[in-house]
UniProtKB/TrEMBL annotation, chain A:
<keyword id="KW-0234">DNA repair</keyword>
<dbReference type="InterPro" id="IPR016467">
    <property type="entry name" value="DNA_recomb/repair_RecA-like"/>
</dbReference>
<keyword id="KW-0238">DNA-binding</keyword>
<dbReference type="InterPro" id="IPR003593">
    <property type="entry name" value="AAA+_ATPase"/>
</dbReference>
<comment type="similarity">
    <text>Belongs to the RecA family. RAD51 subfamily.</text>
</comment>
<dbReference type="GO" id="GO:0140664">
    <property type="term" value="F:ATP-dependent DNA damage sensor activity"/>
</dbReference>
<dbReference type="GO" id="GO:0005657">
    <property type="term" value="C:replication fork"/>
</dbReference>
<keyword id="KW-0067">ATP-binding</keyword>
<dbReference type="GO" id="GO:0033063">
    <property type="term" value="C:Rad51B-Rad51C-Rad51D-XRCC2 complex"/>
</dbReference>
Automatic annotation (TrEMBL), chain B:
<keyword id="KW-0233">DNA recombination</keyword>
<feature type="domain" description="RecA family profile 1">
    <location>
        <begin position="86"/>
        <end position="275"/>
    </location>
</feature>
<dbReference type="GO" id="GO:0005657">
    <property type="term" value="C:replication fork"/>
</dbReference>
<dbReference type="GO" id="GO:0000400">
    <property type="term" value="F:four-way junction DNA binding"/>
</dbReference>
<dbReference type="GO" id="GO:0008821">
    <property type="term" value="F:crossover junction DNA endonuclease activity"/>
</dbReference>
<dbReference type="GO" id="GO:0005524">
    <property type="term" value="F:ATP binding"/>
</dbReference>
<dbReference type="InterPro" id="IPR013632">
    <property type="entry name" value="Rad51_C"/>
</dbReference>
<keyword id="KW-0067">ATP-binding</keyword>
<keyword id="KW-0547">Nucleotide-binding</keyword>
Length: 399, 364
């Protein structure tokens, strides 16, 4: 709409000629100028300039809908949500990952983000009778973490009745298209090509794993002021793809440690300083990479964190859901929730990311039958099986 | 007013001055044909210039016929006081929040609401879009809402939930009134609340400028709109702009237009804003986005922030009210007052995670 040509707008002839003569060819050109400047460029009176702006605005403005029409459209279309089969999470999200919006998964490394994405990709390919979207999936893998063997394993363990059938595994896996861009420019190129082909090829889910990996390589190259540019463009493009094709878009994000550069308080709050807590906070709390602008732009944010010896999925930002956390584990059939009743998390805790205690490295597939909180924290082996917890990265902090 | 101040094109102005018309008096004495000959322009254009000049004369009060005001267009402060007192406010859903705002969001004023992601800005915006529609007999304005969405965070099912919450609260407080008339019953359905919200989805800053310009015409056709909400005003201006000076000019143009619309059509304008970090007083602090010049544009400013585990709102700027904070909560029904005691809707508390009571949950 912004680039709509003035020549196509069917304005009154004298206005159309005037704008064309001054080389104001798109709606953007006309509307970006303040009124007085426009008067100067067109060399006409204020009434002409205002009439031109009013006409162009009316045509460039998108049509309105009532909220009721939106609701009916959502209900009619079945709204394309992707149910995650994690019952508690689906209830909290009112059906599943929403279509047409950007959903972000953020958490420390090794916690299960890619496992979650693999499961989502698989679910989207399943026929609708099994709760899937019966469509193709585009999986953009920037860190080469996509393992088709692992995905088939997840499929066989969670839906044995489907995967036992002949050739079905091949058909499902065949619907997942994996792209491996090596740089940001590759990524943007493939996104641009994708916009049209998404609808033609019946793609029902787009996964970007992970967004932060692309950005971190760019940050070293550029000056701090320009750091925002490639991010901004990708962000608005991803959002427009999501809305244009009305499919769920899932993006994963990394974490970084907090620095004193991050502001936390407003100027009117400066009086209260949480002195003793801050040192502890800096060590154990992480924050999402990509900054606060990205945090504002995503519609749903799921935080994966680990503390007290367990892992949690927290619904940190969602217009539809209360602030709840679900404990989970990663098994051979993918991610499963330990309980479907969410734990209510009051306050800003819901957005913080903690990484304390033992986290199982991704290569160990054994399941521990009894999770005893005390043993996990001290790092010993659980009595019943050979699973032992290993601390990855962070020093052991007693919580 | 001088010739230099007339709203005519630069070439015409130059020709007038070159031809010797240096004051309005000289211009008023001329006839169209004479003017056309002197400036070598068309007669129609000469007539237009004279019309503009006559209009300028009138507003100067040269005719001296207006007795109601000394300066045309001014209103004396006493009349304004009675006007302000009779103005209605839009309920925000939380009584504490209404109190610090002096009754609610003011009509005829522009209010900016900002906060970190996830604090409830969109929730408050949707709540206001619903609350403006509360019928007059239940203490509301009975108006419609325009919701301009730049981020795509407007979810129709959540709006339905909030509408249901609002209706159930109305029926709770006014139990004897609702069965008065069938038409009253019809109006208190969530579907009719959703039908009175006009939704625009904006995908670029050009469309944002276009929709604000178009609102003038839209509001003439839909005179019962009482609130315009823009969620959020920042998003596109943080994406596409390289030229900061142009951004400031465009934003100030937008805020002036919005103020004009608020006053002319007697509606409330609510702008939702994002946050950014700024280096002041030796450390990085949070502040609302779009810069210092934008912060002057709004009449009222409300900042939503976390205070411990509760959501608070801080009235940062207001022409008539003192700065103050108030707590509020976002519940399944929408924005309401906080409750300090346990709420039956909550499942469990965070305290349980500290280890002691955890084991029993895992015994299947």
């Amino acid at each position: 709409m912004a680039n709509k040509l003035v020549s196509e707008m069917r304005l009154p002839p004298h206005l159309a000629h005037l704008l064309a003569a001054r080389r104001l060819t798109t709606a953007k050109d006309v509307l970006s100028l303040p009124e007085v400047e426009l008067m100067g460029v067109l060399d006409s009176g204020i009434h002409t300039a205002r009439a031109a702006v009013a006409h162009v605005s009316e045509i460039a403005c998108p049509p309105y809908q009532t909220a009721l029409a939106l609701l009916e459209a959502v209900r009619l279309r079945g709204d394309g949500r992707l149910a995650t089969t994690l019952r508690g999470l689906d209830e909290a999200l009112r059906g599943g990952i929403p279509a047409g919006k950007l959903t972000e998964i953020v958490g420390p490394s090794g916690i299960g983000k890619t496992q979650f994405c693999l499961k989502l990709a698989l679910l989207a390919t399943l026929p609708e009778c099994y709760g899937g979207l019966n469509g193709r999936v585009v999986y953009i893998d920037t860190e080469s973490k996509f393992s088709s063997r692992r995905m088939i394993e997840i499929g066989e363990k969670s839906f044995p009745q489907i995967f036992r059938q002949e050739g079905l595994a091949q058909k499902m896996a065949g619907r997942i298209l994996v792209l491996r861009p090596t740089s940001l420019s590759d990524f943007t190129k493939s996104l641009e090509q994708m916009k049209v082909t998404l609808l033609q090829n019946d793609v029902k889910l787009l996964v970007v794993d992970s967004m932060a990996a692309l950005m971190s390589s760019e940050i070293e190259k550029s000056v701090t002021g320009l750091r925002q540019h490639p991010l901004r463009w990708s962000l608005s493009f991803l959002k427009s793809i999501a809305e244009f094709s009305q499919i769920p878009v899932v993006v994963t994000n990394q974490v970084r440690s907090q620095s004193s550069d991050d502001g936390y308080h407003y100027s009117f709050e400066v009086g209260k300083k949480d002195g003793t807590n801050s040192a502890e906070r800096l060590e154990s709390h992480l924050i999402a990479a990509l900054g606060i602008q990205w945090a504002h732009a995503v519609t749903i944010r799921l935080v994966f964190e680990a503390h007290s010896g367990h892992r949690f999925i927290k619904v940190a930002k969602s217009p539809m859901s209360p602030a709840v956390a679900f404990p989970f584990t990663v098994e051979s059939s993918g991610i499963i929730l330990l309980t479907d009743e969410g734990i209510c998390v009051p306050g800003p805790e819901i957005t913080s990311i903690r990484f304390q205690g033992g986290v199982r490295p991704a290569s160990v597939r054994r399941r521990c039958h009894k999770i005893n909180a005390m043993q996990v924290r001290t790092g010993g082996a659980c009595g019943d099986c050979t699973w032992s917890s290993t601390m990855v990265g962070q020093p052991a902090l007693s919580s | 007013m001088e010739i230099a101040d007339l709203p005519i094109s630069t070439s015409h102005r130059a020709k007038l001055l070159a031809a010797g018309y240096s004051s309005l008096a000289a211009l008023s004495a001329a006839s169209p044909t004479r003017l056309a000959r002197d400036l070598s322009i068309e007669i129609q254009e000469a007539e237009d210039i004279l019309k503009v000049a006559v209009g300028a004369n009138k507003s100067k009060g040269v005719d001296g016929l207006s007795t109601s005001s000394v300066i045309k267009g001014a209103q004396n402060a006493w009349d304004m006081l009675s006007d302000e007192q009779s103005r209605k406010h839009i309920n925000t859903g939380s009584a504490d929040l209404n109190n610090i705002l002096g009754g609610g969001i003011h009509c005829k004023e522009v209010t900016e609401i900002g906060g970190v992601p996830g604090i409830g800005k969109t929730q408050l915006g949707i709540q206001l879009a619903i609350n403006v529609q509360i019928p007059v007999e239940y203490g509301g304005l009975g108006g419609k809402a325009v919701y301009i969405d730049t981020e795509g965070s407007f979810m129709a099912e959540r709006v339905y939930q909030i509408a249901e919450g609002c209706i159930s609260d109305i029926l709770e407080y006014f139990p004897y009134c609702h069965d008065k008339a069938l038409s009253g019953q019809e109006r208190l359905k969530p579907e009719s609340f959703l039908a009175d919200i006009y939704y625009f989805r904006i995908c670029s800053y050009t469309e944002q400028i276009a929709v604000i310009n178009y609102l003038e015409k839209f509001l003439q056709e839909h005179k019962d709109v009482r609130i315009v909400i823009i969620d959020s005003v920042t998003f596109h201006f943080r994406q596409d702009f390289d030229d900061m000076a142009l951004r400031t000019r465009v934003l100030s143009g937008l805020s002036l237009k919005l103020m004009k619309l608020a006053k002319a059509y007697n509606l409330a304008v609510v702008l939702l804003n994002q946050v950014t970090t700024k280096f002041t007083e030796g450390s990085f602090q949070l502040t609302l986005a779009l810069g210092d010049s934008w912060s002057h544009s709004c009449t009222n400013r409300l900042i939503l922030y976390w205070n411990g585990n509760e959501r608070y709102a801080y009235l940062d700027k207001s022409p008539s009210l003192p700065v103050a904070s108030a707590p509020y909560a976002v519940t399944v029904k929408g924005v309401r007052d906080t409750v300090s005691s346990n709420n039956s809707k909550r499942v469990r508390f965070l305290g349980m995670l500290s280890g002691a009571n955890w084991a029993p949950i895992f015994e299947h």
